[in-house]
Design a protein that fits this description.
Number of helices: 4
Radius of gyration: 17 Å
Largest sheet: 5 strands, mixed
Order of helices and strands: EEEHHHEEEEH
CATH superfamily: RelE-like
Number of domains: 1
Strand content: 25-35%
Shape: globular
CATH architecture: 2-Layer Sandwich
CATH class: Alpha Beta
CATH topology: YaeB-like fold
Strand order of the largest sheet: 3-7-6-5-4
Structural class: alpha+beta
């Protein structure tokens, strides 16, 4: 009996195949790295006004991103219409309305999102989001 062709489940997907009890499984979801940067930010500002709400909104964002299947910038815009797509794979997300900004570098083909910056809108204004 021939082995099943698992590519038929998602014919256009060129993802990673991982063995799982002898069966190939395709990892489609985004891998989020750099979350420690955000956790450090929250820990250093634990008493600040609005930080609990920001953490809650960040956790909701992370939950959505960890289940996303972004393979091109248009996929990000579908999930987050207000996200700003920049050069070099950078994306800027608004967290807690427009109070906080998160800058990430997305490697679409690898399915990896690397958080490069998290801060208030004022702190964001002081950085170069395309090079951070």
């Amino acid at each position: 009996m021939p082995a099943p062709d698992f590519t038929s489940f998602n014919p256009g997907y060129a993802g990673f195949a991982f063995p799982n009890f002898g069966i190939l499984c395709y990892a489609c979801f985004m891998i989020v790295i750099g979350a420690d940067l955000v956790e450090i930010y929250f820990a250093e500002r634990s008493g600040h006004k609005g930080i609990k709400a920001a953490r809650s909104q960040y956790e909701a964002w992370r939950d959505i991103v960890s289940r996303a299947q972004w393979r091109q910038p248009e996929d990000v815009k579908t999930s987050y219409p207000k996200a700003s797509i920049l050069k070099a794979g950078r994306v800027v997300f608004n967290i807690k309305g427009n109070d906080y900004r998160l800058v990430a570098r997305v490697q679409y083909q690898a399915g990896v999102l690397a958080i490069r910056f998290f801060g208030t809108h004022a702190e964001y204004d002081e950085i170069d989001a395309e090079n951070v």
